[in-house]
Amino acid sequence: MSNRPLAAAGRLVPLLRAGLIAGIVIAAAAYPLVAVTGLGAKATAHATEQKTRLLTTALPAETSYVYAPDGKTVLTMFYEEYRQYTKLSDMSPNIQQAIVAAEDSRFYQHHGVDPKGVARAFVSNARSGGSQGASTLTMQYVRMALRDSATTPKEVQEATQQTSLRKVKEMRMALDLEKEMSKEQILERYLNSAYFGHRAYGIYAASEIFFSKTPKNLTPVEAATLAGLVKSPSEYDPADSDQKEATGRRDYVLDRMSQLGYLSPDSAAAAKSEPIRLKLTTPPHDCAAVAEKYNSWGFACDYLKNWWSAQPAFGANRLERMDKLRRGGYRIVLSIDPKIQEAAEKNVGSKEATGSPFANGIVVSEPGTGRVKAMAVNRTYSLDLSENPQSSNPEAGPKVKANYPNTVAPLLGGGDLAGYQAGSTFKMFPMLAALDSGMTLNTSFNAPYRYRSSVYDGWAPSNASGAMTGQQTMWSGFGKSVNTYFVWLEEKVGADRAVRLAEQLGLRWRTDVDRDHASPDKAKQWGAFTLGVSDATPLEMANAYAAIAADGRYCEAIPVQSIMNRDGTPTTYATPGGIHREVAKPRCRQVVSADAARAATDAARCPTGDTPARGSCGGWSTADSVRGTVGRPVAGKTGTTDSTRSAWFVGYTPELAAASFISDPDNPFNAVGDGQSQIPIKAVSETLRDGLKGTPTRQFTPPSDAIVG
Fold first, then answer.
1. Is residue 694 a contact partner of residue 422, using CB atoms and an 8 Å limit?
2. What is the torsional sign of CA 511, 513, 516, 522?
3. For position 60, what pLDDT does the model report?
4. Could you tell me the pTM of the whole model?
5. Which stretch of DSSP H or E encloses residue 634?
6. How far apart are CA 42 and CA 248, in angstroms?
């Protein structure tokens, strides 16, 4: 009896031992359920089928784009993985052929698992002790899709761990997937999922980053270079100073393309003779990457992020919402109006006055929608604080930098900064509450220079000037900013009612002191509320006054014109009542009656030098230059704090509302001084003038006889 079969078997033993994992893989290829035995086999198979079905619909993470209002100018992007999904029809045949040649030459012959490739890998691994994987394009896509759709660290580990069980599941899913999807669909998904290095995920990003072009225009040389990267993006990186490895890998891909009939031998030879010519692009990321031309828009971009992180439509918490922004592939169009933004930038002197500790900022809001039309401050939006001086706050440490000339702090609102004491701009809230409760514009009081309050425990505020003493109505009291009149008026309507109305108009209390005073059990005694001792942001104040311009209809501040999903449909959210609404649509509600708002506007024309429709301003006002500058009907209110530590002006027309302040954000005790109190008045009046230039003049609607009194 011959011993040759036994000898041959003996020689195979070490090969089998060396290729044990590959042997399991071969068994799995032939019998995908072999590795799934026992009582859990059925459940495991069912789970695999469920995941396979998920992969037919799951899409990879995609970059979200932020556009200017034209919907075309890209301001910046948000991404965890820079990627833009691209249809196969928008990819050059060169890249389709190159990736098949590089990664899976039998892609169009097998059904998800390539038996020949598995056998070849088994023999190679057995002989060399290596770990050749024999993964087809379909298997690779399954792995990438499982990784991209993972929601827990455990799922990520299961999708990427180097085990035979993972390989078995991968094969099973690849076989099932090819029953559900065409080769073209799988190839499209693969090319949109693969990583090419340099933060380029998917072929669109790779084409742009390495060659500054779209996938549709890739040449054979470029396509072969990119296809060669998938195997090892760092090893074959063509951006390295030495392109030897990248060129060798590219040439291998070109040879394979020729062998498969995608290129003629002459074309392949000609392509191999060319050097790799890169045209590298770095895609912008996050708000700090907004182009210098649009630098001031960085503050609006930052507000967008803060607003987004507070929207339940995008997740249950801030982390989920920001993850959606970076992975969801949204198309976001900002509400900022370029004309109004340019006017705002010019009139706060953002380019000339960035070297001051005093921040002068402005926010412009649209009545009736709440859309933010401009956000500007005399600062450069930048993360680089290296050249900033030391903070002006004496309590800050020696290493604490000031907020100028560079900052990304949300100085205009929308973030976690408390804001600035807004002074007499708060007189609007008790006046509006009084009007809405049935009091009239002609409500009269003989206001003394100093008034001792019996309601507020003997508190005795005084006026800024003795010239304010005498009989006042809402028109003259508001126009001259008579403190004692408004403390008396607040007593009549109730400080708590004024506080609650301010909350309904969007104000939030961000300091412990303000929260304590605004609490239900203490708000009735907050007499100083009418004098603006609370902090507020220009975003809040512009939006609150915009509600008065919109006849008492308050709209939440919103930084976007539209938000579209990756499929081109508007992004929606479900209300508590189950109604689906677009996230970017205005969210408005009536806070006070239209007549009360019109009456408040009539009184608010007095501070600006405008003429009210129904009453008298009493001969003078605190900002009588505004009407002449704006050149159309305008209302508003000045505000200063003790020692003029900050100064404000909030003004509005029927079309726009704007709030401007000047203060030191680092040190609120660093007084701006009376000499700079006119700066916010000038900023608002000139911005309204320039922003509305060329638009028809609209009139305010006069209040009714009943509310005039």
1. no
2. negative
3. 87
4. 0.87
5. none
6. 47
